[in-house]
Amino acid sequence: xLLALCLAAAAGxxxxxxxxxxILTLLVIVPLAxxxxxxxxxxxxxxxxxxxLQGTRLHLxxxxxxxxxxxxxxxxxxxxxxxxxxxxxxxxxDAGFNGHGYAVAFNTPYRPRAEPPTAFRVRxxxxxxxxxxxxxxxxxxxxxxxxxxxxxxxxxxxxxxxVSLVLGGEDGEDGADGDDAGxxxxxxxx
Length: 190
Fold this sequence. Notes:
four-stranded mixed β-sheet
């Protein structure tokens, strides 16, 4: 069929046949308009809680595919691990997936400090409870005010994923746990 269309066009008949012209045009345009991958065509549903850590606003964007939002069964779990002495507060959020909201927890490893740090590591782990056994992709973007955004993607929203960032300083030395890979170093939780 395609060969016949090409031969007809080559023979000059396309000028007399508007339907043939339309078909040839669509054969050229439609493949160009299609996304290269299935992921590019996927719509993502994003939600965004915001916290402030030691004066630095940290905006989180949690995303799952739009077609899976109806499978969310509870609040998005957002767990922060920050050292002692870091002022922390939950500032704002939308309603979460399906209106379930967020379950936010701030945890501290036991390492008391006399003074607040200038630079500190924060680890954020996010989980989205999903009905059923099918894995649902998840994306997490952490956007600190005045810093570079870090984005990670995982395959299982129910298991979650996380990032590790250094906030509040240039050198990345927080002294909290001896594990300083540098600012914005993503760590995918297993």
